[in-house]
Amino acid sequence: MVRHGDAADPDFTKELLRLGLLKQETLTVTGADGASVALGEYWVVDEERLQSFSLGDPSPT
Hints:
It contains two helices and three strands.
């Protein structure tokens, strides 16, 4: 998991996004009082897409 905005190879990240292998999610935590707090946006691997991915697949975009 890479926090949105963290230093990473931008070309590599763009290519993973173009191939549909990354998705952006919001990480939230819920306290004992039931209140939820968003900790930030993260890029995560789209595991479903990764399992079915083939280099012969066209880009989803």
